[in-house]
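Study this one:
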Amino acid sequence: MNNQPTTTHSADTVGRLLALGSATFLGLNTTLARLTYEGGSNPGTVVFVRISLTAIAVGLLIAFTRRGFALPKAAILPLLGVSLSVVLQGTSYLSSVSYIPVGLAVLLFYTYPLMVAAASQIIDRQKIEKARLIAFAAAFIGIGLAVGPSFNVLDWRGIVLALMGGFGVMTTFMFTSRALNHVKPTSVSFYSNLFAVPMMAVMMILLGGFQPPTTAMGIAGLTGVCLFYGLAILMLYAAIHSIGKTMTALLSNLEPLVSMIAAALILGETLSGIQYLGGLIVVISLLTGDWIARRRMVG
């Protein structure tokens, strides 16, 4: 009689760990990408290579495990939506820092958990409790303190691009949840990245063409970007499948915190006291939102 609740609780815990793992790997991507740029590459090349290699790697995984490449017609449109979202998110976010400070770009980009919550409430009619909305808002404030953005230089193009990047993540969550009704997370990862390759090839040309890194550090950075991105996307889709897009989005607030810590350790960027305070607020908000969700499930 007690087997079902135990299984559900175990799956729920795994889903949260997958979401946090995805956020960690994506957070490391930012710092590793910076190393790649310093090695002579550009954003278009990095996004194109990581998408292409992820499609190949996941395709080999599916073939090796003999899970099959079945693609129901009902899944094609949602998967195309995920692909467009991946391209929009990657190119917009990485281009925004050309016009505004990185801190401000991060702050604007990480409004996407709030976008996911709003979209879930409006489109999916998913009721979100006040307490969890407060947790979202608190996490957003914490991110604002943690990244320490400078508002001295404001260029509307950078602001729009950063928000477009956040919108791209939100639509990724929305389309992924629909695609998962028809195919497994590995299939979502494979086909969404496969469909995104030609789209990203066009964007890469528009963003300066193919420019691979020319230094050992740059090559190491690009290798890390591709490896961590592939793992992060698989974990992200599995987390959405397990615990839903809203809770996954909330736990994804860990990502900018990881980015800052990695930047401090690898790139030598320093953190101020207010940034540590912001990071603490993010962690507390994550734990609070998670506790509220668990309490609701028990109730």
The chain is about 80% helix and 0% strand. The first helix runs from residue 3 to 38.
